[in-house]
Amino acid sequence: MEWYWVPEYFPRFVEGTWLTIQLLVISIIIGMSLAIPIGLVQVTGPRPLAWLAKGFCTVVRGTPLLIQLWLIYYGVGSLFPSIPGIRESFLWPYLRDAFPYAILAFSISVAGYEGEIMRGAFRGVPKGELEAARAIGMSPFQILRRVWLPRALQNVFPTLTGEFILTLKATPLAATITIYEAFGVSSIVRQETYRIYEPLLFVAFIYLVLAAVLIMIFKYFENKIPKRAS
Amino acid sequence: MENALEILSYSPPGWGGALLRGLMSTLQIAFGAYLLGLCIGLFGAFGKIYGGPVLRWSLEIYTTLIRAVPELVLILLLYYAGSDLLNFILESFGFERIDINPLVAGIYVIGFVQGAYTTEVFRGAFHAVPTGQIEAAKAIGMSSWKRHTRVVIPAMLPFALPGLANLWLIATKETALLAVVGFSELALVTKQATGSTKAYLTLYLAAAALYLSVTLVSNVIFGFIERHYRRGQPEQA
Predict the structure, then answer these.
(1) DSSP 8-state symbol, A146
(2) d(C-alpha B225, C-alpha A210), whole Å
(3) Domain annotation covers residue B157
(4) What are the pLDDT digits (tens) for B145-191?
(5) Which runs of consecutive H residues, i.e. helices, occur in B51-101?
(6) Contact between chains at B70 and A63 (C-beta distance less than 8 A)
(7) B219 lies in some domain
(8) Structure confidence by residue, pLDDT tens digits, A131-182
(9) Which positions in chain B touch A200 (Cβ < 8 Å)?
(10) In sequence order, what are the residues at sequence separation of 6 or more whose Cβ sits closer than 8 angstroms to the Cβ of residue B222?
(11) Whole-number Å distance between alpha carbons of A131 and A195
(12) Is the residue at B90 inside a domain?
């Protein structure tokens, strides 16, 4: 085991880890804001919308994330250059960068997996609570915002924590589309120093720390959820 | 559209045949890895339940570390560590270095990862078996082996099956990561095909459709298996 390379590459690992955190947080935020309506329409929505949401979840959960990522980056990305005039537009710098594609792919993945969980969560809220909310004259949107959604989220909070850790563990896939996040940096180190194990163990340690921090943050929020004294 | 059909046609220059062969090796690895995972899982779960402190703690470290580190990192680590270790052993016994068969390497790597998850699934299922049933088996004088093969494991299965079905789906999708270490399963074959045809969208959509069909067929099969093992149990809401 030789660790002489750590000081030299440390700044790049910090940058890479920051990129990993950005990938994770942005995709969770976008993914969850999609997952909530996807879960909701499967419980109350009109039939066609419910089927659409169900189909979306099945497709996302039935194909490997790596294929989704490559499909979006190489497949969808290859369509853009053929649009006339796009190279001159303000969008082009973003379309050329890999980061937005990774965000899109991870957000879709989060939306698919968490959409399925939110479906169960919405269904799990006792009917009586929703009827009570309606009885005191709340509008449907108020019911959703004040009763249904908070109660649903409370019930699946521990499950969501586990799911977000799975998302964290999926972020290294971004390295395959030229995003040098933590794992990507370790690949650079492996190529430049010809050490195999040390960079991998080092990056494994980074992910362990990130996962531990994530768990602590969610534990903090979980403790804020009021529990009925029993 | 016609172009797409040409690219996906079965015989060369179409890539359809290559994709299907890729799918076959994906399924081979997934199946082998799943079986290996089941063996590790069964051993691991009973080790965690009945083992002494040393065995229990080492299994605890195994399941925790494997489940906390990204699969991609694990696959690379296990791939290199496995081949180095094997060659080290072979050399110390005076044999030649060998290149490991990629199929075996893939099965070992994914199976080792799956084993950690399977261990937890079986452990959870064991604790769901009512103690009364195990005590009853003891009371009528069954030996420990008989008690496990006739009562505990059959009673565990209905509880373990949903988790096991999930793990099979994860195994099939995880094989795609082997593309990164250069194993030519479906994902890598697709990537090679896109390299030569530039038909990125068509080929990746085709690969996604193949993976999806594996998932859908597996869901149906596991539905049957689950119904078989749930027979005689109260309906669940």
Answers:
(1) I
(2) 39
(3) yes
(4) 999 899 888 888 888 988 999 999 999 999 999 888 888 888 888 88
(5) 53-68, 71-92
(6) no
(7) yes
(8) 999 999 999 999 999 999 999 988 888 889 989 999 999 999 999 998 999 9
(9) 73, 76-77, 80
(10) B161, B165, B168
(11) 63
(12) yes
DSSP secondary structure letters along A59-103:
HHHHS-HHHHHHIIIIIITTTGGGSTTTTTSTTHHHHHSSHHHHH
Q: Does B230 touch chain A (CB under 8 A)?
A: no
| Structural domain count of chain B | 1
Q: Which of B65, B40, B78, B58 is nearest to B174 (CA)?
A: B78
A67–B190 C-beta distance less than 8 A: yes
Q: Tell me the domain boundaries of chain A.
A: 7-224
Domain that residue B165 falls in:
2-229
CA dihedral A22, A165, A185, A76 (to 10 degrees): -70
Task: Please name the residues between 28 and 67 in chain B that touch chain A, using a CB distance below 8 Å.
Answer: 65
Characterize B51-74 residue by residue with b for buried, 16 or more Cβ atoms within 10 angstroms of its Cβ, and e for exposed: eeeeeeeebeebbeebbbbbbbbb
Q: Which residues of A touch B201 (CB under 8 A)?
A: 71, 75-76, 78-79
CA-based nearest distance A74→chain B, Å: 6
Residue A80 is encoded by which pair of tokens? 């853009």
Which CATH superfamily does the domain covering A7-224 fall into?
MetI-like (1.10.3720.10)
CATH number at residue B167: 1.10.3720.10
- What is the nearest CA distance from A198 to chain B, expressed in angstroms? 10
**Interface predicted TM-score (ipTM) over 0.90:** no
Distance from CA of B11 to the nearest CA of A (A): 23
**Residues B68, A207: C-beta atoms closer than 8 Å:** yes
Q: Between A74, A201, A211, which is nearest B68 by CB?
A: A211
Q: What is the DSSP string of A171-213?
A: GGGGGGGT--SHHHHHHHHHHHH--SHHHHHHHHHHHHHHHHH
- CB distance A84 to A191 below 8 Å: no
Respond yes or no on whether the N-terminal peptide bond of residue B13 is cis (omega within 30° of 0).
yes
Instruction: For residue B101, give the DSSP letter.
Output: P
